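hiii so um. not sure if this is the right channel but i have a protein structure encoded as tokens and i wanna go backwards to a sequence. like what aa goes where. can anyone help
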């Protein structure tokens, strides 16, 4: 899977040039087999170092390597995936606060969605589709 589209890369790079801004996450990466969710808001001009909210057991704001995410090999030849339906909807500070309160990005997404604060985004797999 392509982890970043050209438009996502361009937005992440543009965000990376704007210091001290509470950006909306551009892309969500996840481990399809377990722990590991990353919400990226920025990409350094080197094209590798991303900034955002990472959750590999505890959600925290920080930086990580896109190349390292690409290199992770999971069972059945799979790797880290990009959530194709994700829309950030809120600044990263809102995501971070909700993730700290709930203990994870996945639970924060459920909380924000159920509370009506998330207008779109990924529908939690425990929710029935709306008609």
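sure thing!! here u go:
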């Amino acid at each position: 899977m392509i982890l970043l589209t050209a438009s996502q890369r361009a937005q992440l790079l543009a965000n990376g040039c704007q210091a001290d801004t509470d950006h909306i996450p551009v892309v969500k990466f996840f481990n399809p087999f377990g722990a590991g969710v990353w919400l990226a808001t920025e990409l350094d001009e080197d094209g590798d170092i991303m900034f955002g909210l990472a959750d590999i057991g505890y959600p925290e704001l920080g930086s990580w390597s896109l190349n390292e995410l690409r290199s992770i090999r999971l069972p059945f030849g799979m790797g880290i995936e990009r959530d194709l339906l994700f829309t950030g909807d809120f600044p990263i500070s809102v995501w971070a606060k909700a993730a700290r309160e709930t203990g994870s990005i996945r639970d924060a997404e459920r909380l924000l969605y159920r509370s009506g604060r998330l207008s779109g985004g990924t529908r939690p797999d425990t929710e029935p589709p709306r008609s």
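oh and Residues 6-114 form one domain.
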